[in-house]
């Protein structure tokens, strides 16, 4: 090909990718892409990049190729998920990504790979044909490395190895209760994939209307925010059922990159506590239990029945009525209702059923056929359509079960597993003060709205409190019951402090993975002579949390 044509293609390729990166990492409108690209191309042609007056060709490999590749990975993650969580990346690598439904994400990853190869080829060509690029790209390689958020996050986790304390969160951990309940209620826990309470804002019209209607009959909790390591499905479920953030086992400071055999075995979670009370426990999810360790988590924490796509798909009348992730919600909820009927008929003690749906899954959702009949045709893009579908089906399930008398003496908890990832209304969502859905219905739950600064860690003790457990200090795990007046960690310290402490924490990680991750050597533990320095606010809160 003509060198002049190659030169122009290289400059245009880099310009378009630079413009796209700017729009992904900011809230600037999509057309900013072309403005940034035009400026880059104009400057490049004006300065004759790749074709200087005294051109001297040199075959070499630019230093910036690796830094550019790492930036490409970061932009892909940001474009796909909105918020890049390193903990999620490491955990999914460990827990397994088999049977995932992200076929679209795989195609996007291949597209990104192809584009990044063209960018690297363009930079290489320009550097070889233009000595100005050869001299400057080494400097830009350093800038790219220093500015990459991926490397910043890795650096923070590496610093945890040598932190002076590393046990700030672990000192605040409160083991859950063990006493026996009298007349224990049943429990129905409905996780609505990515259906955050932010959708209740008037910007999103009636997408959240059915959950607003449900909330009028029970307790609605506002202000349940998302701290680090709770922002994906398994992390959200563990935070709300165990009261701890999900810290992957083997993030830089041990060698646990082999597939996991257990998930957070070192702490007692909701399943462990309820099983000890004689509960019959079932987990039903539309997606595969092999993905992200869901099956390992629920089976390892005493659930009797754990079923996902691979178990439920053979039960379908129409085996073709599935999406890339698994079962549609209307099918899943029919099976959930059947499971509750079975448990009620067997009458072998109280039951607990946990259900995880799919309709609100980013980026576009998976609305059921029954929603198409109810709402009209789906355009394949509008996440608000899928949100409305998810909330309507959840309310419909609860109404059906109540009509049959299956929710007598039952605590019903409706909650999001985490805040949504990048969707069609991402810019509107991220401009608001976002929080998770948490609604509780039950015989002893009075209609009320409770506004607290909290996280998903506080959901765990709130559920236990609502079930009738007596909590020491109204706390369990790292959370505080939102029915109580006890301060949450967010109220005491602020979410920024929690996230900073989480980056430094090692002791809690060892607690979570006790028996799996390498145990601390005695020399690693602070001795009685060592002094842990904390602020007066820390010390005051220590008294409240521990005593």
If you had to describe this structure to a student in words, what would you say it looks like?
The protein has 21 helices and ten strands. With 547 residues, it is α/β, with parallel strands linked by helices. It folds into two domains: 3-162, no CATH class; 192-248 and 269-521, Alkaline Phosphatase, subunit A, CATH 3.40.720.10. β3 (280-285), α11 and β4 (305-307) form a beta-alpha-beta unit. α1 packs antiparallel against α2, α3 packs antiparallel against α5 and α3 (65-81) packs across α6 (131-147). It is elongated, with a radius of gyration of 26 Å. The model is unreliable at 155-161, 251-257 and 519-533 (pLDDT under 50).
Q: How are the SSEs ordered, and which strands pair?
A:
Elements: H1 3-25, H2 32-46, H3 65-81, H4 86-95, H5 103-129, H6 131-147, H7 149-159, E1 186-192, H8 209-215, E2 219-225, H9 233-242, H10 270-276, E3 280-285, H11 294-300, E4 305-307, H12 309-312, H13 329-346, E5 351-356, H14 369-375, H15 383-403, E6 410-416, H16 426-430, E7 438-441, E8 448-455, H17 459-467, E9 475-476, E10 479-480, H18 489-493, H19 495-504, H20 507-512, H21 536-546
Parallel strand pairs: 1-5, 1-6, 2-8, 3-4, 3-5
Antiparallel strand pairs: 2-7, 6-7, 9-10
